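Reopening this ticket.

The earlier resolution said the output was attached, but the attachment link was broken on my side. Pasting everything inline this time so it's all in one place.
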Amino acid sequence: MKIESIFRWLVLGVCWGWLAVAAGAETASKAFRAGAATSNVTPPLGTSINGGFHDRQATQIHDELHARCLVLDDGTTQVALVVVDSCVIGREIFDEAKKMVQEATGLPMEHQLMSATHAHSCGTLQAVGQSDPDPLYQRFVARRIADGVRRAWQNLEPARVAWGVGRVPEHVFNRRWHMKEGGIPPSPLGVTTDQVRTNPGVNNPLLDHPAGPTDPEVPFLSVRSVDGRPIALYANYSLHYVGGTGPGHISADYFGAFADGIQQRLKADRLDPPFVGMLSNGASGDINNIDFRGGQAKQPPYGQIRLVAGDVADEVARVHETLAYQDWVKLGAAQGELKLGVRLPTAGEIEKAREVMKQSKLYPRMETLEQVYARETVLLGEFPEEVSAPIQVIQIGDRRLAAIPAEVFVEIGMELRERQPGSFVVSLANAYHGYLPTPRHHELGGYETWRARSSYLEPEASTKILARVEELMGQLK
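Inline output:
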């Protein structure tokens, strides 16, 4: 009996040892890690600056442009979040960068969320308006984005994570307005059925009421090392851009100013590895920083940028003080392609547009808005009947980021959040397919619906995209 008892205790001891090893392995597999880095993507002087109807050239670098990168790892799944200082970026550049990252690290392309900020004072990376990109600069940026993600990957370390939500309502205004009689001129394409006017002018006596709401929320993710050192903060705000830069200046607009400001407020300067602040563009396709009813105090160059960035950073820092960090959260990623129809011009419209273009004394450059949109009509005539848009969802704990490759209207982001609590939209993500109005806003017309390379998707595109986003979210559950 004594030998049997000893044998039983030996067996139990071995079993307990196995259980301890298994428990230890499970704990190890749930170790959460994070790493962040920036990569400079500033263009050379003389480069094209897009974001307007007419091209501009860079004559001064006010502040450097960056790809700001954050990599997260839950022990099983890894994801990357990247925000690039640029007006718009086409899929080819993003895919080239993602492929380089995947080849170097094994991180799947579908697990990398890359977005542009939509600052209108950056080097041209996608042909829009009358701005055309330099292929050398495009390849340079693709490589620099990939380098930033790879450096963030190399900086991975044990970390803790927390989510917060601030509110900054004072800087967001819907820029589409219903007007009193006589307040809506014909469009450059001769359309006289528009029911709203974009950017109608401050204190215009014909203002009636805004055509949509605003979203004041600022959701943000904070990650820090296990000893409390800030690693990165990724925020999201539904504000188009601010502007007010110097002539010919390269600048990251308020997105870059926020990154600097939140670093100062979190006392995260001069860290090793450096702290990375990030601000992505939310659902802001119809939102800007102009109070059309009340106006704004006149600011010097960059004054309004500093004001907006400072207020957003102040609010995020305030909420940041209340955060409860978690040792581990589950990560996930899902991506799918979605075919969307293109609003193509007819052969007659293209022929008429060619005649309008010939009226420009600066041909092939266009002078008037009518000529600019005529050129857009001709260029759209070369588009396919359908385009394939990458739709992506990144899961971080109980929060989900919906990456949409367009300038998403605010109602879409608010509807998604209502239907899927804990989610928010990252606009201009992974590709660029122009503005994304709702079907109702397509009926209202206005600038964001005028057919051009910046607005060509079918009227039902937002409905189809939301359905695909929710389908992908269902897969992650």
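Reporter confirms the inline version is readable. The chain is about 30% helix and 25% strand. The CA atoms of residues 62 and 373 lie 31 Å apart.
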